[in-house]
Specification:
8 strands, 3 domains, three-stranded antiparallel sheet, Rossmann fold, alpha/beta, five-stranded parallel sheet, 332 residues, Multidrug-efflux Transporter Regulator, Chain: A, Domain 2, 52% helix
Length: 332
């Protein structure tokens, strides 16, 4: 008897496709598989992981279920229907401060001690609810006010490290689920970009401050991570210049040479052609003096952790680690 496999079970998608469609890094997907048996990919003749439509949907469900406050180790063994129940219950539960009249200015209360944890704890949902509400109303002023207030309540570093990534992921999820339109996503991205730019331009540093350039290499057009990296560098006492997205290696090196930069900060928002990425990094390093360090971060960069990176190129896990690395470099 011949059995026909339904399309959702056909293992045909490489990990780069699964990463792009779920918004998870390939590193995270591999760890969820190895540690928690969250999905069970097959292997291609060349040994590469292959995922089905069902695997990708399950990874999406796990990602959304994590935002209800649960841990991956607790939910990875649950069936998809149970994950959907958690997500439906969380969506149906009203969030404090989400009412339209309150807007972004009044979504959080309770003092600094409580707010300090908002970027990584359940209180982040209150900020996100206010942000999504302001986005739906196309209220640019409320979006800016929320970020300004968050910087006061949480501190600039926590806003850059945790809150902005959480907000942008929430906007992306709401758009994919039909709760927001493309124009809402564009507005929120524009507001975040201008807010980060304002913070960067306001940094006052001595002329002796070490210099860094930040941007993205070719085919990496999502640049908020690179701009945030420049803000993180400025917070660490570096004169950071953001030069934009999709920049050829030779142009990135020319900017570094013009500024006498000691560091180049690159963001990889999504997995790309690893051979092209490694070739670009190798070319960039060859154009730079040996003393110039290259720091790379973002979801796509985590796929390069175990790769044959050129000497002087370091993968950074988050902005806190970047600030620490830059402080060490400036003292070296």
């Amino acid at each position: 008897m011949v059995q026909t496999m339904v399309m959702s079970e056909v293992k045909e998608h490489p990990i780069a496709v699964a990463a792009r469609r779920t918004g998870l890094s390939a590193h995270t997907i591999r760890k969820w598989e190895e540690r928690y048996r969250a999905v069970a990919p097959e292997r291609s003749p060349g040994g590469h992981r292959l995922y089905s439509e069902g695997d990708i949907e399950r990874l999406q469900l796990l990602k959304r279920a994590l935002r209800t406050g649960r841990r991956i180790g607790d939910i990875a063994v649950l069936p998809d229907d149970r994950l959907r129940e958690f997500i439906r219950a969380d969506v149906a539960r009203p969030t404090a401060g989400a009412a339209g009249a309150a807007g972004a200015a009044g979504v959080v209360g309770g003092g600094a001690a409580r707010s300090r944890e908002a970027g990584t704890g359940p209180q982040a949902e209150e900020w996100i609810a206010g942000y999504l509400d302001a986005a739906r109303r196309m209220d640019e002023g409320a979006l800016r006010a929320l970020l300004d207030r968050a910087a006061v309540e949480l501190g600039q570093n926590l806003v850059v490290d945790s809150l902005i990534p959480d907000l942008m992921r929430a906007v992306g999820d709401a758009w994919q689920q039909g709760g927001l339109r493309v124009v809402h996503e564009h507005l929120t991205t524009t507001v975040v970009r201008s807010w980060l730019t304002r913070i960067l331009e306001a940094a006052v540093l001595p002329e002796s401050a070490p210099a860094a350039v930040a941007g993205t290499l070719p085919e990496q057009r999502h640049d908020l991570g690179a701009l945030a990296a420049a803000v993180a560098a400025a917070a660490s006492g570096w004169h950071a210049v953001y030069i934009g997205a999709d920049t050829p290696p030779e142009e990135m090196a020319a900017a570094a040479a013009s500024l006498g930069a000691r560091a180049v900060l690159l963001s990889f928002s999504y997995p790309g052609d690893q051979q092209r990425v490694l070739a670009d990094l190798t070319a960039l390093k060859s154009y730079l003096p040996n003393k110039v360090e290259i720091f790379i971060g973002g979801e796509g960069a985590q796929d390069l952790v175990d790769g044959p990176l050129p000497e002087g190129v370091t993968v950074i896990s988050d902005f806190a680690a970047l600030r620490q690395a830059l402080r060490a470099l400036s003292c070296g």
